[in-house]
Amino acid sequence: xxxxxxxxxxxxWGSPTAIPQLLGVExxxxxxxxxxxxxxxxxxxxxxRGTLVEVIDADPEKELGPAAVARFGPRLPFLLKILAAGAxxxxxxxxxxxxxxxxxxxxxxxxxxxxxxxxxxxxxNHKPELICAxxxxxxxxxxxxxLEAAGLLDDLGVDSLKPYVDLxxxxxxxxxxxxxxxxxxxxxxxxxxxxxxxAAAACDRLGGAYAPYADIxxxxxxxxxxxxxxxxxxxxxQPGEALYLGAGVPHAYLNxxxxxIMANSDNVLRCGLTPKHVDVPELLRIxxxxxxxxxxxxxxxxxxxxxVYETPIDEFRLSRYVLPEAGTAHDLTRPTPQILLCTSGxxxxxxxxxxxxxxxxxxxxxxxxxxxxxxxxxxxxVA
Length: 383
Fold this sequence. Notes:
Distance between the termini: 20 Å
Number of helices: 12
Helix content: 25-40%
Number of strands: 21
Strand content: 25-35%
């Protein structure tokens, strides 16, 4: 197995302290948002044999296993991250596989450069993802029932919100949600900025359940995404709990440290809380306007101590081991590729001692025995 040297991405919303604290190093003073583990061409992990992209390209069947190559092609189909949100991320949604293929082909036909700021589809893949909390973790996920959102907006006492409140009382619910989100995102920018400022002041005054939206508005003053955020369920994960985010589900992470895994894709449609491009027509094509429960996941334990976070897709499978005794060994050998990540304690993986934030890549079929005292996350595929 290969010890991984991983890139940390300094996105502006990142916490300057959470990842350094996990790694046991001094903060740089700059935001440290995500540590990437995998073979994404944007920031592949490095090994003594070269980058993980180079290692896999040299012999895909040896590194990934014949079944994974037959199912997903000659590339690692997932990307594992440690994510540290110190400020709200953009409100966003991801396409399903068919939508991604259609959108990518369309933008290719129209000759839109891959690095163009108004490009939506960087690849032809979907991007389901799972976030598992390492600390208390706040986020937004899926639409609230429209009447609940109407009450939240109405209680702010802002006159310019009344049309949205009235729309949310319409039927059916999916049409009501679609009309309100469309109205918010297509409103006159100056009028919307004034409405958001009034709403933010009311949220700040009321506090309590409104405090998160006051904080969002502090980071994104005048952004229509502040109102869009109030249409969504707010969720707080406790350590070990997770959220699965499928296609079409609007979401945003607000604060906290977690382990994130996703299909290897960059396809994001933004709804707000961002200075980046918001393609309203394409966004409305992708969003699923259905009220839904956030669906907090807790791991399912198996007899061998593996705790699995069950999801409906095969590009990734995330589980964890909480190892209470240094003398007990677990055989994690699988016919599929794996990344093993330590998040607490000290775990021995093969010949490598892993401390928090350290990880290894295990080629398909290679012996993978672990022991120690701590928590180990295991990322692999279903093939």
